[in-house]
Amino acid sequence: MQINFTGDNIEVTDSLRQLVEKKFHHIENNYNHKITSASVVLATENLTNVAEITIFTPGKEIVARGKADDMYKAIDQMLTKALRQLMKYKEKLTNHKE
């Protein structure tokens, strides 16, 4: 699975990249459905750090965004929201199959 990183007004360091990959691997293991790819955008807007992820699955795109003063907190918010959306989508798929 491929994760594409983009930095907007910020340099994507190895530590940020590794953090996202580590936490996303946890999400991927919990989701169990096929995730084809993901795109992560890390940016600064005014004095706020913004992290946005788009997860591509067959049939749906999941978009989650996190804002905080610290980039690490923004990434945590983003991945928490993405996990919540993926779990909701997973439940929806399993309920329709019954």
Q: Secondary-structure map with pairings?
A:
Layout: E1 2-8, H1 14-31, E2 37-45, E3 48-57, E4 60-68, H2 71-97
Helix pairs in contact: 1-2
CATH top level class name? Alpha Beta
Q: Can you say what the CATH homologous superfamily is? A: Ribosome hibernation promotion factor-like
Briefly note the CATH topology name: Double Stranded RNA Binding Domain
Helical percentage? 40-55%
Summed up, the domain count is 1
Mean pLDDT: 89
CATH architecture: 2-Layer Sandwich
Biggest β-sheet strands, sense, barrel: 4 strands, mixed
Q: What's the alpha carbon Rg, rounded to whole Å?
A: 14 Å
Q: What is the strand content?
A: 35-45%
Order of strands in the sheet with the most strands? 1-2-3-4
Structure description:
The chain has 98 residues and is of the alpha+beta class. The protein has a single domain (2-92), classed as Ribosome hibernation promotion factor-like (Double Stranded RNA Binding Domain). It has helices at residues 14-31, 71-97, and strands spanning 2-8, 37-45, 48-57, 60-68. The protein is elongated, with a radius of gyration of 14 Å.
List keywords for this structure.
elongated; alpha+beta; Double Stranded RNA Binding Domain; 98 residues; single chain
